[in-house]
Design a protein that fits this description.
heterodimer; A: about 375 residues; alpha/beta; Rossmann fold; seven-stranded mixed sheet; five-stranded mixed sheet; globular; B: about 270 residues; two-stranded antiparallel sheet; 9 helices; 11 strands; binds thiamine diphosphate; binds iron/sulfur cluster; binds magnesium ion
């Protein structure tokens, strides 16, 4: 097996191209920038297009157009840039236009932005959270599948560590062909047939059928599709040593890698500590969190690099059945690009030891 | 028939056409599904959209084109055409059309937006698309108001024009100056064709149709972005009687936004 040392952002770009993405548009912002750079070199050789859009508003608009024209398409950004895109992400859900949005966050302060969306209206977007570059390839393929299947934007969450960690990966083989354009998509050829296609966030009822745009009917249809999507996506989580855990950590993304290391360290000292790592942030793996907590846990500790966001979803999963604490201090260096010097295995194990002495049976 | 509101704006009954009016349904092109529309009597937008559809028919582009609509009164036509339509959000049609043309460069991709949509909410989009040389046709229906929201000031509103938020008429000191969009686009490298038409009389409608045909011809010849601005009547948003709107367009609106071809790379 030959391997190659590559930057995480290149792994992300390569995973998108392999998942069939043939259109990408974006506007530079750390730590998203390098993904855009890699897409600009990766797409043309496979017949794809990458546009360095003049703003995030235009980037997501272009993706709206390319996806409606039957292309697997993606965009992405970081906090501020994603805030600018929210109108289109929300309405794409109503228009039934699926594409992938990379949320390359600075730290984890954008958990709510990713999982709740900053947009208007009654919509949700599936959210996948790989814990590092290695898991990206698998989840990126799944993200495009979900976007196609549910005709809805799908968010993939990453951060500075994912973008800039260099990893040794297997040299990839041939790039597979993307799937054919979905049937509903536009190719310009149905005009003049008496049944020209329409893709619109206002619905697809045509005047010629004796009806105009009927937003009441359309929004009810969207709500029904959302109910099916919610039920149709299996929430996923990785469970690490949760069976007998007295302290169950819950962490996603980069923070989960620190938590995983802390669990190993504490287990080697004989402490009963486990980890639930949500892989789908929406739908949230409520059942997995609940099952882990219902074992022998004294406490569920949510480890996230923000002032407490995912903890809400953990509380909703447990509905008061176990005590929940937040091991969160918003950690960042002065650049605020997402480097968190205080996030260390030592700091986390120290916090967990305190919890063990308070909640654990073998408390000394 | 006409009442006056306390603020001095004229209120006109909007559901009754003059008895001797020619109905737009009488000359509906093939590519418009239903001839009747629910826009105000005397509105210029249905005439402009018919002119665009006539141009598409004439060039035989119906099954090789895609319309990208903005949000405004003309959105009423986005589900009433027999050409493929992709509805965009307010201000976003040029970037959406960019995504389409990049993946389907063989199509005649065009946008239809109002002045509020294109020039207020999304001005940077059409300027950037023009400079990138996107091979699309952008059509702006310019009535100098947000017709849809009830007749509010836009960046093209002419000096003296009354709108809901410039009741006494736009004056430069208080409300700034009108922007001339066709003139702005005509000076951008990457643009194939720029013209401004109008639909206030039969002569101008015929002229505007020729502009549309030329714009799509430039698109077919891959000359870059083509732009046709069409001055349309909005008697409701101008707060004047329906039958006075064509003359108002000629005398006031076209005084600032002159009709004519501003640039053509067609040979
Ligand atoms: C982001 C956003 N802001 C505001 C609106 C409300 N809105 C709908 S149409 C419109 C103005 C339309 O004006 P114009 O484009 O000139 O079209 P007209 O109605 O005059 O044909 C506005 C402000 C909206 N739909 N979306
Ligand atoms: S408000 Fe103006 S633009 Fe809108 S339908 Fe009425 S006349 Fe036409
Ligand atoms: Mg207008």
């Amino acid at each position: 097996m030959t391997t190659r040392l590559v930057e995480g952002s290149e792994v992300v770009a390569d995973a998108m191209v392999r998942a069939g993405c043939r259109f990408f548009a974006g506007y530079p912002m750390t730590p998203f920038t390098e993904v855009l750079e890699h897409m600009a070199t990766a797409l043309p050789p496979v017949g794809g297009v990458c546009v360095n859009a003049e703003s995030e508003l235009e980037a997501v608009g272009m993706v709206w157009g390319a996806a409606a024209a039957g292309t697997r398409a993606a965009t992405g950004s970081t906090g501020q840039g994603l805030s600018l895109m929210q109108e289109s992400i929300a309405e794409a859900s109503l228009a039934g236009i699926g594409f992938v949005v990379l949320n390359m966050a600075r730290g984890q302060g954008d958990y709510f932005q990713a999982t709740r969306g900053g947009g208007h209206g009654d919509y949700r977007t599936p959210v996948l959270a790989p814990s590092g570059p290695v898991e990206v390839a698998e989840l990126m393929a799944e993200a495009f599948e979900l976007a196609d299947r549910w005709r809805n934007p799908v968010v993939v969450v990453g951060d500075y560590y994912m973008a800039h960690t260099w990893v040794d990966i297997e040299t990839p083989g041939e790039v597979p062909e993307p799937p054919p354009a979905p049937e509903w998509s536009l190719d310009g050829h149905s005009g003049g047939s008496g049944a020209a296609k329409l893709v619109s966030p206002l619905g697809t009822a045509k005047r010629r059928d004796g009806v105009g745009y009927d937003l009441a009917a359309h929004y009810e249809g969207c709500a029904q599709r959302r109910r099916e999507m919610t039920a149709g996506i299996t929430p996923r989580a990785e469970l690490v040593e949760t069976d007998d855990a007295e302290v169950v950590l819950v962490a996603y993304g980069t923070m989960a890698r620190y938590a995983d290391a802390a669990v190993s360290a504490l287990r080697s000292e004989g402490h009963r500590v486990g980890l639930v790592r949500p892989i789908t942030l929406w739908p949230f793996p409520e059942a997995q969190v609940k099952a882990a907590a219902d074992g022998s846990a004294g406490v569920v500790a949510v480890y996230e690099n923000n002032a407490g966001q995912m903890i809400d979803d953990v509380r909703l999963s447990l509905l008061g059945s176990s005590p929940v604490v937040g091991l969160n201090s918003f950690a960042t260096d002065s650049s605020a690009f997402g480097i968190a010097p205080d996030v260390t295995v030592e700091n986390l194990t120290a916090s967990v030891r305190e919890l063990l002495s308070e909640f654990g049976q073998d408390a000394t | 028939m006409t009442e006056r509101r306390p603020d001095g704006l004229t209120v006109l009954p909007s559901d009754v056409a003059p008895t001797d009016a020619i109905q737009v349904a009488d000359f509906t092109p093939d590519l418009v599904d239903v001839g009747e529309h629910h826009l105000c009597p005397g509105c210029g937008e249905p005439i402009a959209i018919r002119a665009v559809m006539d141009g598409i028919s004439l060039l035989g582009l119906a099954d090789k084109c895609m319309a990208v609509f903005g949000i405004g009164c003309s959105t009423a036509f986005s589900n009433n055409l027999d050409v493929e339509v992709l509805q965009a959000l307010h201000g976003r049609a040029p970037s959406v059309a960019t995504g389409v043309i990049r993946m389907r460069p063989e199509l005649a991709v065009f946008t239809i937006q109002g002045d509020g949509d294109m020039a207020n909410e999304g001005l940077q989009e059409v300027l950037h698309a023009a400079a990138r040389g996107e091979n699309i046709v952008c059509i702006m229906l310019n009535n100098g108001v947000f017709g849809e929201t009830g007749g509010h000031l836009t960046v093209t509103t002419t000096i003296g024009q009354r709108t809901k938020n410039t009741i006494e008429g736009r004056n430069a000191a208080e409300h700034g100056h009108p922007m001339r969009i066709a003139e702005m686009l005509a000076q951008i490298d990457g643009v194939g064709y720029v013209a401004r038409g109008a639909v206030n009389d039969a002569g101008n409608v015929a002229r505007t149709k020729r502009m549309i045909v030329d714009a799509f011809t430039a698109q077919q010849q891959q000359l870059g972005l083509s732009f046709v601005e069409i001055l349309t009547m909005c008697p409701t948003g101008w707060f004047i009687p329906t039958d006075e709107a064509p003359a108002y367009l000629a005398e006031t609106i076209a005084g600032t936004h002159a009709v004519g071809v501003l640039r053509s790379e067609l040979t």
